[in-house]
Amino acid sequence: MINIEIKSDQIVTRNGISKRTGQPYLMREQEAWGFICGGDGRVPPYPTRISLQLEDNQPPFPAGNYILDPSSIYVGQYSKLSLGRIRLAPAQKTSVKGA
Description:
- The chain is about 0% helix and about 45% strand.
- The protein is mainly β.
- Strands 1, 2, 3, 4, 5 and 8 form a six-stranded antiparallel beta sheet that branches. Strands 6-7 form a two-stranded antiparallel sheet.
- The chain starts with a strand and ends in a 9-residue tail after the last strand.
C-alpha cells in the first residue's frame, strides 16, 4: 500500500503552446508527499515530495491522508504492470482500544 499525504489544496497551473504540436496545453498539478519504498524495500522515515496530475475539471484533493487506489494499477500491453490515472482513496483511520 502506498500512503500519500496532502497538506494543501493549492493547485499549480502551467500552460503554454506545445513546441511539438503548436497546440495550447494546460497542466494542473497538486503537491503531495508519498511514503514510497526505497530500493532496499524499506519505507524511509520521511516522505518524498510528489506531484499529482489533475484532470481539467478535477477539484483538488482536500488536505488529508490517502492511499493509492488499486484502480490506478492495471495490466497493460504485453502483460506489463502499468500505472494509469492516479486515483486516491481516503486512508482508514486506525484506533487503539485499551483492554
